[in-house]
């Protein structure tokens, strides 16, 4: 129904920057929230940031001031600009989307690896 494809991951040195993109396709008319989660090996998937169709953003405290989530005008692509990257940011980053303003994501991308070296 909804497909999410992440891009822009890779290897970056600590202190560097990276921008992730998530392109949504399919039946996206009902999507009201898109965002990012991440999961490090052996750890639970954790919330990173979300943005609503109205432009309201939210992010986890550990990335505030460093990461910025945004969307394009068509609201079919979301971005995560990651600055001042730390080794602790190393994880698989998953794009998600949901039809409700609150709750769990209804759709997920396959994930993209971000590795921050020290």
Helix and strand topology:
Layout: E1 2-7, E2 10-13, E3 18-26, E4 33-39, E5 46-52, E6 57-59, E7 67-71, E8 77-82, E9 91-98, E10 107-108, E11 112-117
Parallel strand pairs: 2-11
Antiparallel strand pairs: 1-3, 3-8, 4-5, 4-9, 5-6, 7-8, 9-10, 9-11
Overall description:
With 118 residues, the protein is mostly beta strands. It has no helices and 11 strands. The protein has strands at 2-7, 10-13, 18-26, 33-39, 46-52, 57-59, 67-71, 77-82, 91-98, 107-108, 112-117. The strands form 2 sheets. Strands 2, 4, 5, 6, 9, 10 and 11 form a 7-stranded mixed sheet that branches. A hairpin with a 4-residue loop joins strand 5 and strand 6. It is globular, with a radius of gyration of 13 Å. The termini are far apart. The mean pLDDT is 96.
Radius of gyration of CA atoms, rounded to a whole number: 13 Å
Query: Which blocks of ≥5 consecutive residues have pLDDT under 50?
Result: none
Q: So what's the overall shape?
A: globular
Q: What is the assembly state of the chains in this entry?
A: single chain
> Helix share of residues?
under 10%
Largest sheet: 7 strands, mixed
Which strand-content bin applies to the residues? Answer: over 45%
Coarse structural class? mainly beta
**Mean pLDDT reading:** 96
The run of helices and strands is EEEEEEEEEEE
Q: What is the gist of this entry?
A:
By secondary structure, the protein is mostly beta strands. The chain contains no helices and eleven strands. It is globular.
């Amino acid at each position: 129904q909804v497909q999410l494809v992440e891009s822009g991951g890779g290897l970056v040195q600590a202190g560097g920057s990276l921008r992730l993109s998530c392109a949504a396709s399919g039946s996206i008319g009902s999507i009201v929230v898109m965002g990012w989660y991440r999961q490090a090996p052996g750890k639970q998937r954790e919330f990173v940031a979300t943005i609503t169709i109205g432009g309201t953003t939210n992010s986890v405290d550990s990335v505030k001031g460093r990461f910025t989530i945004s969307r394009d005008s068509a609201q079919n692509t979301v971005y995560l600009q990651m600055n001042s990257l730390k080794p602790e940011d190393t994880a698989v980053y998953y794009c998600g989307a949901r039809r409700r303003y609150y709750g769990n994501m209804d759709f997920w991308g396959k994930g993209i690896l971000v590795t921050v070296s020290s």
